[in-house]
């Protein structure tokens, strides 16, 4: 099949709309006609060069939804016409983390930029074009069936795209990774697409107070809209002072939903005794932050990482749909702006400038 997709040829250069060949779905694979793709910061890392080791040319996109268009031989779970959310973490189903129920931690992830067999499914003039995970900026994509999660057909399929990364990652970090309980205090540092879903997760658990922290006032407004009971602009106010004023001794949980190592240091500094920091934002390759062991030991504080909301996409995605349909999860207002496929560069610019909750490319 011939498709036209935005291709990142070099970091810090505009993407090029190229006519690519897309292979037919192979054994256990499906072809999906994409309906929408969210614009995620992890792809921005590839586009702005802050993550190294990403092969190019590459089709970006790790958050999307669509309709199964064709199935390859041996595909057991899906049929043409099924509505699906794309998972960026296809799992082998048989390694130890998979068997324990943590497929996002699968030991047999495909090599970066390629499918599990080591090859690509996109080609341009005979050369391989790589996949950024599922490569959801392609109008049609081929993925293993484990990466396409079937959902009910009466939910708006374009909005479902966001469940493929930001909703599940943010909500799950609070509900699954942290396991916040009613009445515990939560600060969410970074109130972008992922952080707002962490705020929603905190609201769903009955946490209080829920403190949104950002350096952009418009994002703090979003945070209040999505369930934050208090907000702090950490550029205008001293964060530790402001948290102490609100909570007395610090928060039970800090959720760091931004790839800033300064925010990660702050996330530890604002914890109450036995508080837990959960890190889900991705900094640039090789960036680190300092940890004061005294602070950790004296207060029995912990730092946890969270990947894909610590859940199984096969279970989590349909659950998020049910919560959204019941009015307990707000997805439609996360979308600040819709873009055509050839406006992906502008969507990145707006994301980097902190102008939006989530941009959505609609095919
Ligand atoms: Zn993402
Ligand atoms: Zn596995």
Total domains: 2
- Biggest beta sheet attributes: 7 strands, mixed
Judging from the principal axes of the Cα atoms, what is the shape? globular
Ranges where pLDDT stays below 50 over 5 or more residues in a row are: none
CATH topology of the largest domain: Quinone Oxidoreductase, Chain A, domain 1
CATH first level of the largest domain = Alpha Beta
Number of helices: 11
Bound molecules: zinc ion
User: Beta-sheet strand percentage?
Assistant: 25-35%
CATH architecture call of the largest domain: Alpha-Beta Complex
Using the CA coordinates, give the radius of gyration. Answer: 20 Å
Fold and architecture overview:
- It is a single chain.
- The protein is an alpha/beta fold and 363 residues long.
- The chain has two domains: 2-164 and 331-362, Alpha-Beta Complex (Quinone Oxidoreductase, Chain A, domain 1); 171-306, Rossmann fold (3-Layer(aba) Sandwich).
- It has helices at 41-48, 96-99, 157-160, 166-178, 193-205, 217-225, 239-247, 261-269, 293-299, 313-325, 344-352; strands at residues 2-7, 16-22, 29-38, 58-59, 64-71, 83-86, 122-124, 127-131, 140-144, 148-150, 186-189, 210-214, 230-233, 251-256, 271-279, 302-305, 335-339, 358-362.
- Strands 3, 5, 6, 9, 10, 17 and 18 form a seven-stranded mixed β-sheet that branches.
- Helix 4 (166-178) crosses helix 5.
- It is globular.
- The mean pLDDT is 96.
- One zinc ion (ZN) is lined by residues 40, 42, 62-63, 165.
């Amino acid at each position: 099949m011939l498709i036209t997709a935005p291709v990142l040829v070099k970091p810090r250069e505009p993407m090029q709309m190229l006519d690519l060949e897309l292979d037919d779905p192979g054994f256990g694979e499906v072809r999906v006609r994409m309906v929408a793709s969210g614009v995620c910061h992890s792809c921005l890392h590839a586009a702005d060069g802050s993550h190294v080791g990403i092969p190019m040319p590459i089709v970006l996109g790790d958050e999307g939804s669509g309709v199964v268009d064709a199935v390859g031989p041996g595909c057991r779970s899906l049929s043409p016409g099924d509505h699906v959310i794309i998972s960026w973490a296809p799992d082998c189903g048989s390694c130890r983390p998979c068997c324990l129920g943590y497929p996002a931690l699968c030991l047999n992830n495909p090599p970066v930029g390629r499918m599990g067999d080591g090859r690509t499914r996109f080609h341009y003039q005979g050369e391989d074009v790589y996949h950024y995970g599922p490569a959801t900026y392609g109008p049609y994509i081929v993925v293993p069936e484990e990466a396409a999660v079937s959902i009910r057909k009466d939910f708006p399929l374009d909005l479902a795209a966001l469940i493929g990364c930001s909703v599940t990652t943010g909500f799950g970090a609070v509900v699954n990774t942290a396991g916040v309980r009613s009445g515990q205090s939560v600060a969410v540092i970074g109130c972008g697409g992922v952080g707002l879903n962490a705020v929603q997760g905190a609201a769903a658990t009955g946490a209080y107070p829920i403190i949104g922290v950002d350096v952009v006032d418009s994002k703090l407004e979003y945070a209040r809209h999505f369930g934050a009971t208090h907000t702090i602009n950490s550029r205008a106010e001293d964060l530790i002072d402001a948290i102490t004023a609100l909570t007395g001794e610090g928060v039970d949980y800090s959720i760091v939903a931004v790839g800033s190592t300064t925010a990660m240091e702050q996330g530890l500094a604002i914890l109450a005794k036995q508080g837990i920091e959960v890190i889900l934002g991705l900094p640039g390759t090789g960036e680190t932050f300092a940890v004061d062991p005294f602070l950790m030991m004296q207060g029995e504080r912990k730092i946890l990482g969270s990947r894909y909301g610590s859940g199984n996409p096969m279970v989590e995605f349909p659950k998020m749909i049910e919560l959204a349909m019941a009015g307990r999860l707000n997805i439609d207002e996360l979308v600040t702006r819709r873009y055509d496929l050839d406006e992906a560069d502008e969507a990145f610019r707006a994301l980097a400038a902190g102008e939006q909750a989530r941009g959505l490319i609609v095919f």
